[in-house]
Amino acid sequence: MDDGTETRIDKLYRIIGECRYGVHDLSRTELDDAHHLPRFNMPLELGIFLGAKRFGTDDQKLKRCLILDVEQYRYQRFISDISGIDVTPHGGDRREAARCVRDWLVTVSGRKTIPSVAVLLESHDGFFEGLPYIAASAGLDAGDLVYADYERLVIAWVKDEAKRG
User: Fold this and answer.
1) Residue 133's closest CA among 124, 142, 125?
2) Quick one: which of 101, 136, 130 has its CA closest to 117?
3) Inter-axis angle of helices 41-55 and 8-18, to 10 degrees?
4) Which residues pair with 56 in a beta bridge?
5) Which residue of 25, 26, 45, 126 is 20 to 30 Å from 69, comparing CA positions?
6) Against a cut of 0.90, is the pTM above it?
7) Distances (CA, A) of 108 to 2, 45, 118, 119
């Protein structure tokens, strides 16, 4: 839901409050070219998630989270207050990050129907290769998608993949 009167932080509070699982990748903390400052949105979102889990209702206490970084202990140089929490390294490889997330979801969700990482990545790659055609068939321009359009295309793609699979 998009509401122009909702502040970004309130939107984050709402989304984090509604979710059961959180995936937080701390690897994107390099300095930007323009201001030579890092973006710390993901560590902030992780902090909100951890706060909801710690101080929230009984449902909030059931939250589960995966924390990723390039190297296992690198995060301690910029967010040392979470030392002692297991961080999963992905080496900066998006395919390895996908494997980490998939394997974690299988473990924490208890679902037995999550496809292998190879199948997920093949579907992902197929979606992006076909996105211009997928969007055009829905009357959209792949280069000018708003989030809601993109979300609908992904959901339709996943459903079609399930039918074919």
Assistant:
1) 142
2) 101
3) 50
4) none
5) 126
6) no
7) 30, 20, 20, 20
Please report where in the chains the tokens 């449902």 appear, as a residue.
59
Contact yes or no for 14/5 (Cβ under 8 A): no
The residue whose two tokens read 């101080």 is 55
Whether 69 and 51 have beta carbons less than 8 Å apart is answered as no
Nearest to 132 by CA among 153, 161, 151: 153
The secondary structure of residue 78, as a DSSP letter, is T
Gap between the terminal Cα atoms of the chain: 31
- Between 34 and 39, name the one with better pLDDT: 34
Residue 68's identity, in one-letter code, is L
Separation CA 15–CA 43 (nearest Å): 16
Torsion of CA 3, 124, 132, 162, to 10 degrees: -90
As a whole number of angstroms, the distance between CA 165 and CA 159 comes to 10
Residues 109-118 have pLDDT tens digits of 988 788 899 9
Q: Nearest Cα to 74, choosing from 38, 34, 105?
A: 38
Tokens, residue 23: 């995936």
Extract the tokens encoding 46. 């992780």
Read off the tokens for 33: 């070219």
DSSP summary character for residue 30: P
